[in-house]
Amino acid sequence: MRHFLQKLLKTPLIRLADRFSSRPDQKRVNKALSALYEKIDSGTGKNGITISLNTDTDKFIIFSDQHKGARDGADIFARAEKNYLAALAYYLDNQFFYINLGDSEELWENTFITVKKHNKATFEAEAKFLKNKRFIKTFGNHDLYWDNDPLASAGLGIIYHQPVDIYEGVILKTTINKLPLKIYMTHGHQGDLQSDGNWFSKWFVSDVWGPLQSYLRINPNTPSTNDELKTLHNKMMYQWSSKHKNMLLITGHTHQPVFKSLTHLELLYEKLGDAKKANDDQAADQIKKQIVNRENRGDKMPDFKGYHDTYFNTGCCCFNDGDITGIEIANGCIRLIKWAYGPHKESTRMVLDECKLADLKLNL
Question: H helices of the chain, where?
């Protein structure tokens, strides 16, 4: 019965949520991102923090969208937990600073107590970064509780064994090619009423979609789910970032990795073109296999290309196959990375793409 209902209800339920919830709007996105950036950059308020980046020595890993749940049918993080823990162990050992960009806990569908009970291992792993003063936690739309509930600070203190500041954004400041560079990071739901305060979406997820997802064991967070909306939102993020000089914008939220303003699938098509121009048939064949694999998993070609290398998206830590993606900033480079299970279920780090910060084509 469950299998039959999965096929019958998955598509109409997702479409219903999209139909009645508000969609992102460029003006709202622009206004929200700009207001937050100005508050953080000016140092007014408690919305965020600025950090100096030494490109020769400092190393950062940025993950988002774990959506830690209750280890039930609706817990889309369960399959990825092993990869996430392996990644955190690697980055801790290699002296990385961990920036969590929100939606780490799925608090639309679960209570804080439930999430705390079923995710002790990941909280302990994150706490090690905090103990070494190498951890920043921001909130997203699904864990907005950390920002707006008066008991949130006490809850964070319990799971991390010490006080934890919660932010809406972070700015890294450095100098590249003798010019200032600011790397602005936030969850990315700002300005999207579907995810930023719309009553229907919250009610639907908590009272309708959550219980149904648990029973039907449906994971909506794959690249194919609502690809049109994800592409639109990433496009709006790019449009905002492209108008600001000497700046990169890194977000999460859409669960769709973006590197240098292009999705991973777009980057593969670019590499395929380069391989064909170089008459490298072997490389072209390997890239074609990767493209087919991505398309079979549901990736579609978005309808935009960036003119500047100003926008990046971490992807998520809850893909259906257990993969997680993130952004590394280290050794003067920025990288899109993936942790995936190998043939023997071992967790393996892969670099999907990388570029020197000095080689980025920015709006200068």
Answer: 2-20, 26-42, 81-93, 112-118, 120-131, 145-148, 152-160, 199-203, 210-216, 227-242, 264-277, 281-296
Distance CA 224, CA 201 (A): 20
Tens-digit pLDDT profile for residues 125-156 = 999 999 999 999 999 988 888 988 888 899 99
Per residue in 76-114, pLDDT (tens digit) is: 899 999 999 999 999 999 999 999 999 999 988 888 999
Whether the CB-CB separation of 249 and 310 falls below 8 Å is answered with yes
Q: Which of 93, 96, 84 is nearest to 122 (CA)?
A: 84
Residues 6+ apart with CB under 8 A from 271: 283, 287
Instruction: Give phi and psi for 40, each to the nearest 5.
Output: -70, -45
Question: Nearest 5°: phi and psi at 96?
Answer: -85, 150
The model's pTM is 0.84
- Pairing between β-strand 324-330 and β-strand 59-63 as defined by DSSP bridges: antiparallel
- Give the residue among 221, 240, 235 at the shortest CA–CA distance from 320: 221
